Every structure is written in structure tokens, then in C-alpha cells.
Amino acid sequence: MSHPPQPVARTATQVFADHRELLFSIIYSMLGSVCDTEDVMQETWLAWAARHEAEGAAEIGHPRAYLVRIAVNGALAHRAAVSRRRETYVGPWLPEPLVGPLPDAPVPADAGDAADAALRAESVSMALLVVLETLTPLERGVFVLHEVFGYPHTEIAEILGRSPSAIRQLAHRAREHVHARRPRYAPDPQVRRQVTERFLEAALGGDLDALLRLLAPDVTLWGDGGGKGAGGPRPLRGRDKVARLLASVAPRSGQGLRIAYRSVNGDPSALLFAGDTPYAVLVLDLTPDGDRVCGIYAVANPDKLSHLGATERSL
């Protein structure tokens, strides 16, 4: 005969569930991988549950702070393994995309998946995540906590076990590094959607002149195929090179693909499907004036797209 769960177990589960979106968002922002994020989430839950089940354990006064500390330090511990995988990765590496409905689309009542929940909380753009990869793990952790989630330096110091002055130095270095590579601006979502549609029309139609008008002179194309999907050996830079490659390759590789416009890491973007199978995710980064494309992020590694079929069916 089964017994109902003890009240303390229900409390531990409910508290963790209440903070799941925040924890997922923080960990994902530090790792850029849904799979690794889920691993750290599981470790965080096990540590949290064990603390509650410990005999004679005192009540945790600030569960949110306690959970965030476990999650952040778990993510930092995972960075070494993540970095080792990057060293042997074939071609450019891009974050695993988080896909959800466009902001003006209705959200399904049963959308409870952790990845979708993260999108409804704080999100980090594909372009910013690429820049965050150039930080040290500690710098990235401090930047994410302070710049993205608004944690004060004193609280970050407690989470990471560092002095407030050390955290301020890390925050300053990280902020200067990130802003030098990606100044703060937010293109209008409608403009981004329109530019994405025009870009795909030009690329899939092989319209070289239209591509040259759309692309910024210093545009960079990141094609993440991981050796298993469409992608290049390294990022391609320069308007002429990128436009000519797209005009010659896209009409053939994109023939028969279905396009669905969705939000990817918070930005209006495009999903490309071959039948019902995800083929690629395309995210464009625009210049501050919003007129031209300065970054093209194409994720075609099937390992990073395997979860998108289920996500698409729920939207």
C-alpha cells in the first residue's frame, strides 16, 4: 500500500518548482546548452531534496538564494566539460536554440516545458551568448547574474564565495569586454521579422544584389553543423564573401524547405523544416540602426535541433 508523500517533501518540490524558470534561465545563460542545463537542474534538485531530507536540518530562510547558489556553482563546475567539448567540435559552435512562439502569438495553456518557460523569463540572445563564450567562466557567471538578472554585487559575492570588491572587478572586466564586442541596443521586433523574411527571400531565391543591399560590410556568417549538418569550417566574414556563398548555396540546399517564424532566444527568427524534420534555425543580428544584417547564425547540427519537433507541435 502506497503512502502519501510527507509534507516536507511536498514543500521541497513546490519550492523548487516555483523557482524552476529562474534556475533554468540562469544555468542556460552560463552554458548555452539545454542538455547540460538539464543535467545541472537535476543536480540542483538532488542537492535541494537531500538538504530537506537531512535529519535535524534547520529551515532554509531564503530558498531562492540557496537554490541559485547551488545552480550557479553547478554550472561553473560543468564549464570545464563544456569547454573540452568545444575544443573538438567540428566548425563554429553556436548555442542550442530555445524556441517559442512569437511575442504576438498566443501561448498554449499547457506550455510547461522548461525551455519554453525560460523564454517567458529572462532570455539571452544568440548573438550575446556567442560573445559570452569569450569570457572566463567566473566573468560570465558574474555578467549573467548582474547584467541579465539584476543581482547586486554583494549578493553575487555570497553566491560565488568571493569578496564584493573581487566581484566588482570581474563585473567591470566582463561588461567592458561584452560591450566592446556588442554595444547595447534592441532592434524593433517587427523590423527584425521583416528583415528576416527579406533575407530568406533573397537567399533562397539566389538574389545576389538583394543580399548585398541587406548585408552590412562587416557581416559574419556562423554556420553550426557540428560535422553532421550544413555548416562551414569557420565563421565567414565580409559582405561580398557571405552574399556570394549564400546566393550560390542557399537555393539548392533550401529547396523544398518549410519556413516557420518563431522566437529564438527571445528574438523573432526562422525555423526551417524538411517535411516534419527540423533542418536549421536561422537568427539574424541587425546593426544598431536596424537597416542591415551584421550577424547570421545558422544552427543545423541535428543534435541541437532534435527537441524542436516536439516544441513546434506544442506551439
TrEMBL record:
<dbReference type="InterPro" id="IPR037401">
    <property type="entry name" value="SnoaL-like"/>
</dbReference>
<feature type="domain" description="RNA polymerase sigma-70 region 2">
    <location>
        <begin position="16"/>
        <end position="81"/>
    </location>
</feature>
<dbReference type="InterPro" id="IPR013324">
    <property type="entry name" value="RNA_pol_sigma_r3/r4-like"/>
</dbReference>
<comment type="subunit">
    <text>Interacts transiently with the RNA polymerase catalytic core formed by RpoA, RpoB, RpoC and RpoZ (2 alpha, 1 beta, 1 beta' and 1 omega subunit) to form the RNA polymerase holoenzyme that can initiate transcription.</text>
</comment>
<dbReference type="InterPro" id="IPR036388">
    <property type="entry name" value="WH-like_DNA-bd_sf"/>
</dbReference>
<keyword id="KW-0804">Transcription</keyword>
<feature type="domain" description="RNA polymerase sigma factor 70 region 4 type 2">
    <location>
        <begin position="126"/>
        <end position="177"/>
    </location>
</feature>
<dbReference type="InterPro" id="IPR013325">
    <property type="entry name" value="RNA_pol_sigma_r2"/>
</dbReference>
<dbReference type="GO" id="GO:0016987">
    <property type="term" value="F:sigma factor activity"/>
</dbReference>
<keyword id="KW-0805">Transcription regulation</keyword>
<dbReference type="Pfam" id="PF04542">
    <property type="entry name" value="Sigma70_r2"/>
</dbReference>
<dbReference type="InterPro" id="IPR032710">
    <property type="entry name" value="NTF2-like_dom_sf"/>
</dbReference>
<keyword id="KW-0731">Sigma factor</keyword>
<protein>
    <submittedName>
        <fullName>RNA polymerase subunit sigma-24</fullName>
    </submittedName>
</protein>
<dbReference type="GO" id="GO:0003677">
    <property type="term" value="F:DNA binding"/>
</dbReference>
<comment type="similarity">
    <text>Belongs to the sigma-70 factor family. ECF subfamily.</text>
</comment>
<dbReference type="InterPro" id="IPR052704">
    <property type="entry name" value="ECF_Sigma-70_Domain"/>
</dbReference>
<dbReference type="InterPro" id="IPR007627">
    <property type="entry name" value="RNA_pol_sigma70_r2"/>
</dbReference>
<dbReference type="InterPro" id="IPR014284">
    <property type="entry name" value="RNA_pol_sigma-70_dom"/>
</dbReference>
<dbReference type="Pfam" id="PF12680">
    <property type="entry name" value="SnoaL_2"/>
</dbReference>
<dbReference type="InterPro" id="IPR013249">
    <property type="entry name" value="RNA_pol_sigma70_r4_t2"/>
</dbReference>
<dbReference type="GO" id="GO:0006352">
    <property type="term" value="P:DNA-templated transcription initiation"/>
</dbReference>
<dbReference type="Pfam" id="PF08281">
    <property type="entry name" value="Sigma70_r4_2"/>
</dbReference>
<feature type="domain" description="SnoaL-like">
    <location>
        <begin position="197"/>
        <end position="271"/>
    </location>
</feature>
